[in-house]
Specification:
The structure holds two protein chains of two kinds.
Chain A: E1 3-6, E2 11-14, E3 19-21, E4 23-26, E5 32-38, E6 44-50, E7 56-59, E8 62-65, E9 75-77, E10 86-93, E11 99-101, E12 105-110
Parallel strand pairs in A: 2-12
Antiparallel strand pairs in A: 1-4, 3-9, 5-6, 5-10, 7-8, 8-9, 10-11, 10-12
Chain B: E1 4-7, E2 10-13, E3 19-25, E4 31-37, E5 43-49, E6 56-57, E7 64-68, E8 74-78, E9 87-94, E10 103-104, E11 108-112
Classes of the chains: A mainly beta, B mainly beta.
Chain lengths: 111, 113
């Protein structure tokens, strides 16, 4: 079945550091790929998504590119802020209603 | 717009008790979902409703039942709670499946003693 593997955390960074969270997937066909973010005490919210190969999703300085050849969708941000401290989830959806999530990566940014 | 709302925010049950978690959305979405979140396991789909009048099992449906009351509301029922059901429960909604974004509620933290 479909599955997502993402980099284990926790990750601790200083402000203005570069952030990368690796995500790889296994799926049949051509899934859509998502990054969701969960701030402390809140539900998940969409950070960015890509629906076909070579698409780049971007939002709030974060970027991820859908790489079919490496089955990856790595999340990057060039200069993190304290407000980026959160749990980040990679997820995929096939041609149905099921969203498969990775285990989540906790990111803490220190001032 | 409130988006997706869930009640209650917190609940403590004793083993064997029953309860219903309520979820409502005001985005006129067709599809609704219930997930549970456990440490180190991401979110796992319990049940979903692709459209009003339909419900289907997800990855971990045992011990739960759902009702799609109307287009806006989707409830999750625990008939006889067990400690293994201690978790954070999230409701979500979307226009449809596939590439459509799912919008999540704030969650219900449930503890079963």
């Amino acid at each position: 079945g479909d599955s997502v593997t993402q980099m284990e955390g926790p990750v601790t960074l200083s402000e203005e550091a570069f952030l990368t969270i690796n995500c790889t997937y296994t799926a049949t066909g051509y899934p859509s790929l998502f990054w969701y973010v969960q701030y402390p005490g809140e539900g998940l919210q969409l950070l960015l998504k890509a629906t076909k190969a070579d698409d780049k999703g971007s939002n709030k300085g974060f970027e991820a590119t859908y790489r079919k050849e490496t089955t990856s969708f790595h999340l990057e941000k060039g200069s993190v802020q304290v407000s980026d401290s959160a749990v980040y989830f990679c997820a995929l959806s096939g041609n149905d209603y099921k969203l498969s999530f990775g285990a989540g990566t906790t990111v803490t940014v220190r001032a | 717009n409130a988006g997706v709302t869930q009640t209650p925010k917190f609940q403590v049950l004793k083993t064997g008790q029953s309860m219903t978690l309520q979820c409502a959305q005001d985005m006129n979405h067709n599809s609704m979902y219930w997930y549970r979140q456990d440490p180190g396991m991401g979110l796992r789909l319990i049940y979903y409703s692709a459209s009003e009048g339909t419900t289907d099992k997800g990855e971990v449906p045992n011990g739960y039942n759902v009702s799609r009351l109307n287009k806006r509301e989707f409830s999750l029922r625990l008939e006889s709670a067990a400690p293994s059901q201690t978790s954070v429960y999230f409701c979500a909604s979307s226009e449809g499946g596939g590439f459509n974004t799912q919008y999540f509620g704030p969650g219900t933290r449930l503890t079963v003693l």
